[in-house]
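TL;DR need structure tokens for one chain.
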Amino acid sequence: MEKGNILIAEDDPVLREVYVKKFSIAGYQIRTVKDGVEAIEAIEKQVPDLLILDINMPVMDGFTVLEKYPKEQRPFPVIMLTNFGDDRNKQRGEELGAEDYFIKSEMTIRKLMEMVDNLMKAKHYWKK
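>> reply
TL;DR here they are.
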């Protein structure tokens, strides 16, 4: 059974590959992009059920992508990825309406999978 369609915006090719493997095995349909411009193009093509969004990417960062899709207007939750555990980035992500925040150095892929599963369950629950 397909669980949903996830878009992953991550500039690190190794991490992208890990995410694709793990989420595909878990039954998700995965699309990946390597920067914010590609993320916006991918969202315009097909709205994801969930967006996993790296903050620090070339060309356009994750915050700029979030600014284009305000929380009140977007039909998908967002998990922000970062290498930095600093409060300023987290606060900025929260202000822009990110549903969750994943600090790569402190968390495991299993934790990210749990975040995704929980948000996807909530999304299906709230879908009208």
